[in-house]
Amino acid sequence: MGTGWCQRITNRSRALGVKAMKKVQKKERQKYLEKHSISELFSFPVEEYIEVHEYRRDEWIIREGMRPDYLYYVIEGKAKIYMTYQNGKVSLINFINAHDYIGEMELLNEVYYTKGIQTSTKTVCFAIPLHHCRNQMLGDIIFLRELTKFLSMKATQMAAKYSQSLAFPLENRLADFILQTADGDIYREKHVTVCDFLGVSYRHLLHVLANFCEKGYLHKSGRQYWIEDRERLQELAGVSRNG
Amino acid sequence: MGTGWCQRITNRSRALGVKAMKKVQKKERQKYLEKHSISELFSFPVEEYIEVHEYRRDEWIIREGMRPDYLYYVIEGKAKIYMTYQNGKVSLINFINAHDYIGEMELLNEVYYTKGIQTSTKTVCFAIPLHHCRNQMLGDIIFLRELTKFLSMKATQMAAKYSQSLAFPLENRLADFILQTADGDIYREKHVTVCDFLGVSYRHLLHVLANFCEKGYLHKSGRQYWIEDRERLQELAGVSRNG
DNA sequence: AAAATAATATGAGAAATCTCATATTTTTGA
DNA sequence: TCAAAAATATGAGATTTCTCATATTATTTT
């Protein structure tokens, strides 16, 4: 993926630098624990063991290929899941938001190829150390039921995205994406991220966006787009959704 | 999807006919239960409640949009997961094989859009009635741990397929698919199924297959293809896989 | 065994999407 | 604050993939 690819690589290698996650301690840690209590998700006193990790923008929570030592639960921020192919191609697989788990695959499966996870904003996670809590978690009915739900939704969502990606041209997928990520009537995701996520070239993404403007679905002003014809976008997006 | 689409629709509507699943009883039921014991997957005596359902080729185990009354565990046979879009387009999402669960989404989630599941060979399932066992299953640590593993693998697999589908042209995905489904050196999946699964038109699939023959990767004889250059196919497929 | 249906097959033009080249503007890091 | 890197932007030709048209061959149903 010509241009897009290079841009991504340089971006990512930059981020391999010396930044480091910060362990939040004492009072501040306590504040987070109180504000986002997750004790009801466990039947053992997990809060004793929880570390609070704070990551800056573009930091890696997990490096691709390295097994994490924690199960993470995101309480603030956004991150992206990346995966590198053998030919060096890098692809954005999904977004991670507050209330998502990270590292649950590694908790459950002995054998698992770990994907890379990079923050896209400042991100705060609860980090539950596996060496202390692994067995307790795997024997905790409340937690497992919770995790099972999370995973089933994740699997469903991926399945939907997968067949959607195969079955429809960018026009439909982009309409869907715009509606999902727009802030009110304003859409302003970064093109480089989006073309990565939707698996199309930068060039083509711009082409279809321009096309949307021409047709009056969007109006471009500076670096952002106003949604002008929501109905039409919903129609385009709807085609690719199921009941 | 012109031709392909029509072919599929007619195929599917035919299968909406009067066939019906058969409940296997008594001795035969007992035989299945003994041969494929799943009691170690549960900590309650699930076998009392299990029904054994037998489906013929092309029967629907679950109709799209209808919540099932059972959690199924496949013990013999193969099936396909389908999903219909609002514009009538139908897409094959995945294959189901022995030892897969069916209906776990509905067990876990109150709200879930049920996909259609159609057998492609004679298929035998254990059917665990939800109205009897739902609560017991959701409180069963052994079962939940098992299910969680299953779901995590499913989610991972979908994620891999998804990004693969976006990131590579048919050439790579088809090479992968051929290697995965070939019986020794012989490949003979039905084109209509394959183009559905890989999300490409029938025409294009044939085109790429012909291309593989031209280049000497495959040799066509009658209705099947011999793998002539496995290494090259692995190379093509490998590119799209991760460590 | 005949008729109907599904699957396979192939050509040709059109649409979607990619690659490459290159320029400008914005953001980031030293 | 200045240089480097990243993001945005646009044109043009090349590839991939789709649609439509139309035959032929297998399989299923009657």
- In the predicted model, the low-confidence regions of chain A spanning at least 5 consecutive residues are 1-18
Strand-pairing-aware structural class of chain A: alpha+beta
Question: Approximately what portion of the residues of chain A adopt beta-strand conformation?
Answer: 15-25%
Number of helices of chain A: 9
Query: What's the name of the CATH homologous superfamily of the largest domain in chain A?
Result: Jelly Rolls
C-alpha-based Rg of chain A, rounded: 20 Å
Q: Indicate the CATH class of the largest domain in chain A.
A: Mainly Beta
Provide the number of structural domains of chain A: 2
Strands of the biggest beta sheet of chain A: in what spatial order? 1-2-9-4-7
The largest β sheet of chain A comes out as: 5 strands, antiparallel
CATH architecture of the largest domain in chain A: Sandwich
Query: What is the CATH topology of the largest domain in chain A?
Result: Jelly Rolls
Query: Largest interface, by Cβ-Cβ below 8 angstroms: which chains and how many residues each?
Result: A-B, 49 and 49 residues
Multimerization status: homodimer
Distance between the termini of chain A: 34 Å
Run of helices and strands of chain A: HEHEEEEEEHEEHHHEHHEEH
Which whole number gives the mean pLDDT of chain A? 86
